Amino acid sequence: MSRVDCFLPYYDPAIAGSTVESFLCEPSVGRVFLLCPEDASQPEGVPDGCTLIRVPSLKSSITYKSVAGQASAEYTLIYTKLSALSFVHYALDRMLAIAGDTGAAMLYSDHFDVLDGKCTQAPVIDWQSGALRDDFDFGSVLLFRTSALREAASRMNVDYAYAGLYDLWLKVSQTGPLVHVNEYLYYDTETDTRRSGEKQFDYVNPKNRAVQVEMEKACTEHLKDVGAWLAPVFKEVDFSLGDFPWEASVVIPCRNRVQTIADAIDSALSQKTSFKYNVIVVDDNSDDGTVEVIKRYLDRPNFIYIAQDKTWHGIGGNWNAALHHPSCGKFALQLDSDDMYSDDGVVQRFVEAFYSQKCAMVVGTYRLTDFNLNEIPPGVIDHREWTEENGRNNALRINGLGAPRGFYAPLVRELGFPSTKYGEDYAVGLRISREYRIGRLYDVMYNCRRWDNNSDSALSREKVNANNLYKDRIRTWELEARKVMNRRG
Questions:
Q1: Where are the beta strands (DSSP E) in 285-391?
Q2: How confident is the model at residue 209 (pLDDT cuts 50, 70, 90)?
Q3: Are the CB atoms for 186 and 86 separated by under 8 Å?
Q4: DSSP letter string over 285-297?
């Protein structure tokens, strides 16, 4: 009995043909719809049993409204890539069975990536309420309960050029669970072969600004729908808390950075300020000669070295050690151990920003460079998607708040950093933004050096998944806390 209507792109008939064939041979498939670009010429030889639909693109709202209008079977399958697709034997039946058992509004699964004839496992992660990234990886096969799809599409009140699918699955998530089947159910052709470090800046590339504006709008509407949106009303920061002999501290957490730690320290110590500041280096058990380099600076009166014990700390734990050190300044400013400030006035500008913008955290702007400080694409990363009106809402969508960062130490001592190696700064930033204003500096504050020894330059799929799962979890906690705050008024 036909239970599924299938929709797939028909941009290249030669490639799509095999995918159409794989759909048509499935007993549970009723109708197959081919999504063809409006500006493409009439394709020759539309396969028997298929219906052609003209659409603007695979990203537009109009496309998914058209899909909802045509779908009539119990389930609707949407394939989102232009490359060839084939199913594991009986996989579609398996997906339908699980969808029925779970009441899924949308279902997705692990799959295999095929590249140059080689097949590798491509697991994805569980969706959760805080998984609001517009680049969340569901894979390319999305199985919707048609009733949920049509209900969601009926509430798509903005015609997005880029955020159509994002808006759709956000609205579908409001109707029922998005279920991950951790079984490998289809073969997909891998088309993006870049390393993890090359992909992570896509969303802040200035070329993608128009896309990001739409994604923010769709996410903001979703947050309002679920009761997690926050109005731009902030608590005032009391800068008189505590007794600080130093106005500011540059905090440099590090582990095994013998090639770069001296550059970072020199950059921090060369700052010119109208107030007292110091530099705190927290070493987490380096064994490559980093400690020997750090000790060369011990005779500097404004240099502090903290050697961590051998228990677990992570970058967050190293930050906690610096923040709770008696010589920590009122404002704690971040500098990664392989990066360098852009000039000698960064610390001064950060502290001035705290007072002038009356904020509990300040985020700067950075320039991506190679190891030798030559600019590399996409160049300057300024996170201009952050606005005072909606920045803390949009922060639940994006995967980072920017850099370098500065914190009002008394507040962050109270909140604490999570003892992790990834996402620790994002967690603190989200928590601060729930109540307090975050200030911005749009001048380049430091050079972010990208090289093979960056901790995130070439991560495995498993590590990328683990990192994304953790940040999604942080967002889930924050989302729920904001709902509670709104309910309390």
A1: 303-307, 331-334, 340-341, 361-369, 375-381
A2: confident
A3: yes
A4: ---SSHHHHHHTT
Q: Please state, for a pLDDT cut of 90, what percent of the chain lies above it.
A: 84
d(CA 96, CA 89): 14
* pLDDT confidence band for 41 (50 / 70 / 90): low
pLDDT at 1 over 90: no
Diameter over CA atoms, the chain: 81
Per-residue pLDDT reduced to its tens digit, 416-468? 999 999 999 999 999 999 999 999 999 999 999 988 866 555 789 999 999 99
Identify the CA nearest to 350 among candidates 337, 339, 334, 336: 334
Residue 481: count other Cβ atoms within 10 Å of its Cβ.
Answer: 14
What pLDDT is stored for residue 457 in this prediction? Answer: 58
Same fold, 4-193 and 248-488: yes
* Contact assessment for residue 467 and residue 388, using Cβ atoms and an 8 Å cutoff: no
pLDDT band at 22 (very low <50, low <70, confident <90, very high): confident
* 114 and 189 Cβ atoms separated by less than 8 Å: yes
DSSP class of residue 170 equals H
Asked if residue 88 lies in contact with residue 150, where contact means CB atoms within 8 angstroms, the answer is no
Residue-by-residue DSSP string for 53-76:
EEES-TT-HHHHHHHHHH--SSEE
Domain at 4-193: CATH code: 3.90.550.10
* Alpha helices in 50-195, H assignment, sequence order: 61-70, 91-102, 146-154, 164-173
Q: Per-domain residue ranges for the chain?
A: 4-193, 248-488
List the beta bridge partners of residue 143. 77, 107
- Both tokens of 285, joined, read 């058990």
**Each residue's pLDDT tens digit, 331-387:** 999 999 999 999 999 999 999 999 999 999 999 999 999 999 999 998 999 888 789
CATH for 248-488, options being 3.90.550.10, 3.40.228.10, 3.20.20.150, 3.30.565.10: 3.90.550.10
Q: What does the angle CA 479 – CA 481 – CA 484 come to, to the nearest 5 degrees?
A: 110
